[in-house]
């Protein structure tokens, strides 16, 4: 079996372990929450019969091992239960309707962060002007210190409300109309990732430009732009893959916050509504799906390294 096949099997194993841990932890948190979850959901005026019925529906009357086993079996069958608020609608349908929106937001964020971060990182590393390099570094540090929800509120106020060049939240009727609603949240979320891409590329390009193969390319008479595009850029961009993988969980968490600020119907809005309504099955479903997405992104990052960098294939 090749290195790619081994990594795929390892990825599937990691996803199975994460699913088990998430199911156990969410079940424990419901048990450890103050008060009776069924009474919290139904309110103080609920009758004992109503509370008992909801406890049976949630499976809270069963022992903990039985609860975990039932939920794991449901995960294997693709059944995460039904919403307590949106009666008759399955959790999997609620979550999966929101997943494509969140993944689109993350994908657009990655594209913006990569394009802007790589360009600014190369500029800072290869410029002859110290002020430019220091300015680029200061920009990265400043953006890292700015939480996504603060940047979201600033962009919402300035770009959407004052300038009117983007909708002030909400969602469209379909694609490509939805791009008008998602590009500004993607810019806000890129404030979390772009500075790290910038710093990584700046440091990597600064080291690579002194290597022998770069000096040899210059000695052969290649122009500065050719040396940058053909030798510095490909090697300096490789560490960006690692940055994307390491920040997968942060991107998911940031997307949840940004979606709530801009009113985008992704996982963030689903989770916000579920927490407000004490809709525990939906909360468990969102926790499980987001954890699996993080593992999947990390696994795809590992596979990308194997495909792109021949040195990793040889080592494997």
Task: Report what the structure shows.
- The protein is mostly helical and 316 residues long.
- Among the domains are: 3-84, no CATH class; 112-201 and 235-277, no CATH class.
- Helices cover 78% and strands 0% of the residues.
- The protein is built from 14 helices and no strands.
- Helix 7 packs across helix 8 (179-208).
- The mean pLDDT is 80.
Describe how the helices and strands are arranged.
Blueprint: H1 3-32, H2 37-42, H3 48-58, H4 64-76, H5 91-126, H6 130-144, H7 148-162, H8 179-208, H9 212-219, H10 224-246, H11 248-262, H12 267-277, H13 280-308, H14 310-315
Helix pairs in contact: 1-4, 1-13, 5-6, 5-8, 5-10, 5-13, 6-8, 7-8, 7-11, 8-10, 8-11, 9-10, 10-13, 11-12, 12-13
Count the helices. How many?
A: 14
Kindly estimate the percentage of residues that lie in beta strands according to DSSP: under 5%
Note the run of SSEs as H and E: HHHHHHHHHHHHHH
Number of strands: 0
Question: If you average the pLDDT, what whole number results?
Answer: 80
Biggest sheet statistics = none
The dominant shape is elongated
Structural class: mainly alpha
Radius of gyration, taken over Cα atoms and rounded to an integer in Å: 24 Å
The helix content, as a percent range, equals over 70%
> Which runs of at least 5 residues are low in confidence (pLDDT < 50)?
none
Distance between the ends: 11 Å
């Amino acid at each position: 079996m090749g290195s790619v096949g081994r990594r795929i099997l390892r990825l599937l194993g990691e996803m199975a372990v994460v699913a088990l841990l998430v199911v156990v932890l969410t079940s424990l948190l419901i048990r450890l929450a103050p008060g009776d979850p069924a009474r919290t959901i139904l309110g103080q005026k609920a009758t004992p019969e109503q509370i008992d019925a909801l406890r049976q529906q949630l499976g809270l009357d069963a022992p903990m091992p039985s609860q975990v086993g039932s939920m794991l079996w449901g995960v294997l069958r693709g059944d995460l239960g039904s919403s307590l608020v949106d009666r008759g609608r399955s959790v999997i349908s609620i979550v999966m309707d929101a997943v494509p929106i969140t993944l689109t937001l993350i994908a657009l964020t990655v594209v913006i962060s990569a394009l802007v971060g790589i360009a600014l990182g190369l500029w800072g590393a290869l410029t002859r002007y110290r002020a430019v390099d220091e300015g680029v570094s200061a920009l990265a540090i400043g953006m890292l210190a700015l939480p996504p929800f603060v940047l979201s509120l600033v962009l919402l106020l300035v770009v959407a409300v004052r300038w009117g060049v983007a909708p002030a939240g909400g969602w469209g009727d379909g694609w490509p109309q939805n791009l008008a609603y998602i590009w500004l949240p993607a810019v806000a979320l890129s404030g979390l990732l772009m500075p790290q891409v910038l710093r990584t590329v700046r440091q990597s390009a600064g080291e690579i430009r002194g290597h022998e193969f770069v000096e040899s390319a210059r000695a052969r008479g290649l122009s500065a732009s050719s040396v940058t595009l053909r030798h510095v850029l490909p090697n300096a961009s490789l560490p960006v893959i690692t940055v994307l993988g390491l920040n997968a969980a942060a991107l998911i968490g940031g997307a949840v916050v940004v979606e709530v600020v801009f009113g985008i119907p992704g996982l963030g809005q689903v989770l916000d509504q579920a927490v407000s309504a004490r809709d525990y099955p939906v909360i468990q479903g969102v926790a499980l799906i987001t954890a699996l997405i993080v593992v999947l992104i990390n696994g795809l990052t590992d596979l990308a390294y194997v495909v792109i960098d021949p040195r990793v294939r040889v080592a494997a």
